[in-house]
């Protein structure tokens, strides 16, 4: 094993240029210094915020149909291939219900959250609470009826989209109004798990997933003129459609909901 020692490397770059004066012309060289230093701090990049919806193992003895949904917050999602199938690499946090559900069912709905008050209000619940400790679906449904912090509710994907999977396919419930929904399935039967005999195993496992189906959403508004002012009219034909802006980790850091390490801030869960 190669051991890297903390070090600083200085690189001097020479830039040759010309300077002129009224009496003569001379060539001068200017130098700029680039300093390379080792660090333990990774780059703070801005990435999309997703929620993975999975089916809980709560079917009764008379049927194998799952009845409730668990959701989390996930940011380790990376597209890695587009042909012949779209493939994604997904990092699953260990010892979580989402990981357990996905590895059992081998499928999920990945939801790209919208930069909206409704979705932002769900982050603390979905990312800061464990599905082992509370039934998140119940919380979302109860809060919707009470019009409280997480007043968004959840719905059937078949009801929210016009081209969802066959009704015979049981899908997890989803948050309405996401930018995009991806139905993923596990490629193969294995996960990528890093373990070092001398150190703790990694915090996440990696799974490679195939995109089976995709759905997208837009917001629609209809307007009419009343005394020279435009107002939204419910039930009118769609006249304007706008793509949703996805929620990012940079936005959540800006709001103080997550830390620079990507964890839910303590103050955000109080």
From TrEMBL:
For this UniProt record, the keywords arranged alphabetically read as follows: Signal
Report the protein name in the record.
Uncharacterized protein
The UniProt entry, under Gene3D superfamilies, shows:
Electron Transport, Fmn-binding Protein, Chain A
User: For this UniProt entry, which residues form the secretion signal?
Assistant: 1-17
- From what superkingdom does this record's organism come? Eukaryota
Supply the InterPro entries for this chain: Split_barrel_FMN-bd (IPR012349)
């Amino acid at each position: 094993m190669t051991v890297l020692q903390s070090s600083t490397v200085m690189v001097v770059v020479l830039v040759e240029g010309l300077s002129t004066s009224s009496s003569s012309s001379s060539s001068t060289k200017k130098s700029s210094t680039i300093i390379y230093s080792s660090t333990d701090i990774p780059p703070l990049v801005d990435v999309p915020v997703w929620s993975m919806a999975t089916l809980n193992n709560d079917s009764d003895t008379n049927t194998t149909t799952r009845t409730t949904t668990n959701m989390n917050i996930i940011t380790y999602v990376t597209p890695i291939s587009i042909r012949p199938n779209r493939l994604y690499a997904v990092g699953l946090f260990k010892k979580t219900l989402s990981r357990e559900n996905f590895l059992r069912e081998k499928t999920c709905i990945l939801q790209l959250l919208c930069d909206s008050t409704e979705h932002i209000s769900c982050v603390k619940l979905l990312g800061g609470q464990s599905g082992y400790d509370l039934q998140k679906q119940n919380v979302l449904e109860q809060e919707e009826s009470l019009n409280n912090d997480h007043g968004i509710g959840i719905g059937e994907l078949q009801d929210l989209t016009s081209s969802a999977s066959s009704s015979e396919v049981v899908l997890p419930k989803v948050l309405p109004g996401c930018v995009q929904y991806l139905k993923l399935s596990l490629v193969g039967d294995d996960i990528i798990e890093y373990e070092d005999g001398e150190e703790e195993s990694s915090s996440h496992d990696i799974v490679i997933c195939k995109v089976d189906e995709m759905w997208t959403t837009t917001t629609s508004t209809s307007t009419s003129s009343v005394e020279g002012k435009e107002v939204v009219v419910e039930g009118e034909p769609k006249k304007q459609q706008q793509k949703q802006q996805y929620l990012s980790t940079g936005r959540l850091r800006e709001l103080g909901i997550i830390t620079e390490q990507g964890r839910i801030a303590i103050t955000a869960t109080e």
